[in-house]
Design a protein that fits this description.
Helices cover about 40% and strands about 15% of the residues. It is of the alpha/beta class. It folds into two domains: about 140 residues, Aspartate Aminotransferase, domain 1 (Alpha-Beta Complex), CATH 3.90.1150.10; about 270 residues, Aspartate Aminotransferase, domain 2. A seven-stranded mixed β-sheet has the order 4-10-9-8-7-5-6, sandwiched between helices. Strands 1-2-3-13 form a four-stranded mixed β-sheet. Strand 1 and strand 2 form a beta hairpin. Helix 10 packs parallel to helix 11, helix 15 runs parallel beside helix 17 and helix 16 packs across helix 17. The chain is globular. The termini are far apart. It binds pyridoxal-5'-phosphate (PLP). The site of pyridoxal-5'-phosphate has 17 residues, from helix 6. The site of pyridoxal-5'-phosphate (PLP) has 17 residues, from helix 6.
């Protein structure tokens, strides 16, 4: 058998990849036709491909490489842990030091009485844990009928049957029999796309009050929990109007339902605080964590749980767990990641230095003729593309056509920016420096110019009526 290495010709790697590797969220036939981009190595905010391109990664992989690529310390910790104890489980009354140390550290970092951690291998798994945990919580309290979880359309909470059901992605629900029973979705607070002629403040209130309406419709004695991302990520980095979160908090308090903050993207500095729920000003009962927890160096996720919920769950045998819950290598690497974040004051860097620097330039993208709103919280931002800013019109083409063209122009200019429909989104490594942020903006501007020219050339500069 030939050894497959970075030194093989790109076309050969692409052919083997298309032949044997089924990609997530991809049309495999399309991929086979054009060949995947082969990423070979990375450092800081930069990734390299097999063609010798050096690309600015404004997505931090999939929103996760918070401390940047190429950290030797993480590799050293992983190697040390693999030699000492590569694996042991935490079922059956056993534990190990990496699990203990990471759980203790997370309890220290998480706000309020979030003092208990149930580990998983990913965000999807952690949200599956959350479904079972909140339902078990109410059952243990003698209210088993209290099982409905309310979520939001276009939310992303993972790709398993449970977490994909919590999420509100229509294309995902269209495949494989999602959602599972007992999940209810309300509309997202996306004023730009759905606000019509209402003011952002009115719209924020209206969208928050959908939660109250849903609770009343379903019956307050049947609702277990509400789950939300503090800032909706994969749904297009949707920053709600200021009126939204205080009203949501009021409603959750009034009806006593559990609040789950999905912090998989927002956690670990992304929004300028350790957790996004601190940025938006609410105290969850459970937090979902993954991604930035290990900066993506190892797959690990979990649920950070309040004293009150942990106390109830602690009375029963919770028949739930994963072989890799608190995997020692992943836990050791995650702990090292948090140590780096503290030593280098990365949360402060986001809040006081790079967040404001990038933010000012990002918001100035609204001066571009194709950019409507530009939103950014810490180091997660989005812009809405439009042929007509005043009316916030969509393009007459299929949603995502112009976003895709723009993303391709970004790629060609060695910038990774993602598109969600006709929104462009960024979530760069938190260690980004001001000169790198300037390069991001420069390349974004150039790519927008080129995309706009192409859109006009193809006759797509037409507002939907
Ligand atoms: C990515 C993501 C998840 C799922 O995490 P995986 O590790 O991919 O399973 C859950 N919630 C949010 C908000 C995410 O962005």
């Amino acid at each position: 058998m030939t050894q497959i290495t970075n030194h093989m010709p790109t076309a050969e790697l692409q052919a083997l990849d298309a032949a044997h590797h089924m990609h997530p969220f991809t049309t495999q036939d399309e991929l086979a036709g054009r060949g995947a981009r082969v990423i070979t190595r990375a450092e800081g905010v930069w990734i390299h491909d097999s063609e010798g391109n050096k690309i600015l990664d404004a997505m931090a992989g999939l929103w996760c490489v918070n401390v940047g690529y190429g950290r030797d310390r993480m590799a050293d910790v992983a190697a040390r842990q693999m030699r000492e104890l590569p694996y042991y489980n935490t079922f059956f009354m056993t534990t190990h030091v990496p699990a203990i140390a990471l759980a203790q550290k997370l309890a220290e970092l998480a706000p309020g009485d979030l003092n208990h951690v149930f580990f998983a291998g990913s965000g999807s798994e952690a949200n599956d844990t959350n479904i079972r945990m909140v339902r078990t919580y109410w059952a243990e309290l003698g209210q088993p009928e209290r099982s409905v979880i309310i979520s939001r359309k276009n939310a992303y909470h993972g790709s398993s049957m449970g977490s994909g059901s919590l999420g509100g992605m229509a294309p995902m629900h269209a495949q494989g029999g999602l959602p599972i029973p007992g999940i209810h979705h309300i509309d997202q607070p996306n004023w730009w796309a759905e606000g019509g002629s209402t003011s952002p403040e009115e719209f924020g209130l209206e969208r928050a009050r959908q939660l109250e309406k849903a609770i009343q419709q379903i019956g307050p004695d049947k609702v277990a929990a509400f789950i939300a991302e503090p800032v909706q990520g994969a749904g297009g980095v949707i920053v709600p109007p200021d009126s939204y979160w205080p009203e949501i908090r009021r409603i959750c308090d009034e009806y006593g339902i559990l609040l789950i903050a999905d912090e998989v993207i927002c956690g670990f500095g992304r929004t300028g605080n350790w957790f996004g729920s601190q940025t938006v000003g609410w105290q969850p009962d459970i937090m979902t964590i993954a991604k930035g927890l290990s900066s993506g160096y190892q797959p690990i996720g979990g649920s950070i749980v309040s004293d009150a919920v942990a106390e109830v769950i602690g009375k029963c045998e919770f028949n739930h767990g994963y072989t890799y819950s608190a995997h020692p290598v992943a836990a050791a690497v995650a702990l090292e990641n948090l140590t780096i974040m503290e030593e280098e004051n990365i949360v402060e860097h986001v809040r006081d230095v790079i967040g404001p620097h990038l933010g000012a330039k990002w918001e100035a993208l609204t001066e571009h003729p194709m950019v409507g709103e530009a939103k950014i919280v810490g180091m997660m931002g989005s812009i809405a593309l439009t042929p007509h800013k005043d009316s916030r019109a969509r393009f007459a083409a299929d949603p995502g056509t112009v976003g895709y063209i723009t993303r391709e122009r970004c790629f060609a200019n060695n910038l990774v920016m993602r598109h969600v429909g006709d929104r462009m989104i960024i979530s760069p490594p938190l260690v980004m420096q001001p000169d790198e942020a300037d390069m991001l903006i420069e390349r974004a501007w150039k790519s927008l110019d080129e995309a706009m020219a192409q859109v006009k050339e193809q006759g797509l500069w037409v507002a939907a009526s």
